[in-house]
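Trying the structure run again after the queue cleared.
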Amino acid sequence: MYLHELAADENGRSFAAVVNRKLGLGVVIDFDASLFPYFMEWKSTGAGDYVVGLEPSNSSVHGRGWHEQRGDLHAIAPQASERKSLTFTVIEGEAAIDGLIARRDALLG
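Done. Tokens:
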């Protein structure tokens, strides 16, 4: 498990992506970083398989007690609901991949 601190643009938007240049494919997850302030990545590389998980989240893997101590435990009232959105985009081709890299570089300054 890897914990990442992601940069956000002037509108508070962030993204994460997985790219395979050899195949010319990638997937991008765009989201509002204020709604998903934590980001975890995990991977499994067992016996000929490769799986990666990209997880924007409103809580970390440190658990409830850690968030309570920090004063940032996310909770909603009983019977309440929240609506959040993520956008998944599949990109294809060298130009799209290069555009994504340029977007990342611009975000990081």
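Residues 2-108 form one domain. Worth checking whether this holds up in the mutant runs.
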